Amino acid sequence: MSEKDTGWDFHLRKLSVSGRDSNTANDPASDPSLLPSVRKLHELCKTEKSEDLVARVYPSINKIFQRAAASLSQSRTSNGLLLLAILQFYLDFGEFVLHDADPSLRTFFRSCLSREFADPVVAEATLEFLINNKKKLLTSFPNLLPQFFPLLLKLIAWNGERLEKLFLKAFPGLMSPGSFLPLLPSLVDLPILVVALEKVEKTSGPLIGSSIASIQKNTAPKMLLALMDEAYTGSTIEDGGGDSEYEDNSAIDVADPLFLELLKDENDGIAERPWSSPVMAAILQASVNSPYSDKLKAVLGMTPRLLDVYFSIALHTVNNSLICALIPLLMSRFATIFPDKIFSYEVRKRLLEFMLSTFQCSPNFIALLKKPIMDRLGEAYDSPDKTELALQLCWAIGEHGGGGGSHKDEARELFESLELLLYENLSSSRVGMTQEVSLGSDKDTYRRSSQSRLLCFVVTAIAKLATHHRELIPRARVSLGKVARSRISDARVWRRACDFLGLMKDPAICSSILGPSRPTQGTAQKVGSINWSEGSTKMIAHIPFYILGEQEGPPFHDFSFSDIIPRR
């Protein structure tokens, strides 16, 4: 008998003996020699490329998987590596033995990884498994990873930057039509997920085991009643501890439905996360008032990079209907972000860049989304964050003509919203974001500066929108005239309104400066309009205003176009 045959028989007998051993029959992972035998048999099957050998080893390996899966709730040994080794055997040789790996994969995620995601060894091995089998998983089991993306987000949130590179390689597999929308709020809320996981660890012990699963199991009936009540009556069942004050971090109830929503393992669609709830307020208050843990610091830095990958994939591969549906969700989350200054800045920056890039690629989205856009304009002074969002939306409305020349009704409604926002500011000299009577000098200065900046964008949007849709020019002249005659307007706003009124007296120049920067789909570039994107390749008849620095008086410049337009 050859040495190879001897090794084969040894490992095969090891699998058979394990099933008869009373000490390991109900907990196969407790036998440390079992994993090397499974791996060795798998390696021999790949080397020999023999269907007969695969058929001989499959029954023993399959029995081990079934016993290990059945013992997960009672096992005190990590089963992750053993089950991953068997799953690899299923994926490589399942077609030879007619084994459908889908139920086995779901058993691993639902029963094993949900208990062992906090184990760094199992977490790393899982990501390597997903990367090595990416093509097969996406083609044969396309809904698997999108279904369990909340669990994989828990894995990376807890294990942090050490596994970031591996996770980024596996991340595209999490995105599908069914997970694309729910994935965004889950990514934005990764820091809150870390806080929730740390709370569970503090309250219920180490996360490696059944702590989270037992919490979910014990509160499932209560959650079901709450969801049914909310669905049919619109009300919610209050948490039992709702009357008590959250005096410290330890008083938060980890069985609260909000916590269970954060800690869920499977994708069940977009769920409302009430930021005004006592539990969420307690989570944020506790995390902000105490020093950040290392895990929270890591996630605060990692989340913006995950959003970069998410938005990059969205712009290149996701269909327009899903992207259009994402924009209102993005706007609703703009003001509800974990309250860390650097983190919130980085996340909002990416949300705005994606939204504006989407409008640039598909200007008609502005017309399709006029209702949520108008709602956001109406909230412009609720908070500084909403002011910034409204400002960017005003720019997009003006830049893209309210969706294009074919959307005249939508453009008119958007114009009316801009008018209303403008008149609300002109009706009172107070124009504040709060109803406070007394304001500190710094806060008052910031408020006035923010108001002036927004009004500059509103005035510009009104002028540009009227240039796109000429039937709105008379109304635009009235609106800008009121600003020009107003005594309470900021000097910058007043000057801009006067400039636009002057431009409107010469339609050709007005169209050239305020008209669309590029022709809309199906239309030609208007005569006299400047396509600034071609400035480096074509001679143009105008010097851009930003080069002149808005200087008044006689020309002060002494340069040629070769000094202005870069050469290739």
TrEMBL record:
Residues 30-154 form the AP-5 complex subunit zeta-1 ARM repeats domain. Pfam families: SPG48, TPR_AP5Z1_C. InterPro entries: AP5Z1_ARM (IPR055450), ARM-type_fold (IPR016024), TPR_AP5Z1_C (IPR056856). Coiled coil: none annotated. Residues 302-520 form the AP-5 complex subunit zeta-1 C-terminal TPR domain. This is AP-5 complex subunit zeta-1. It comes from Phaseolus coccineus.
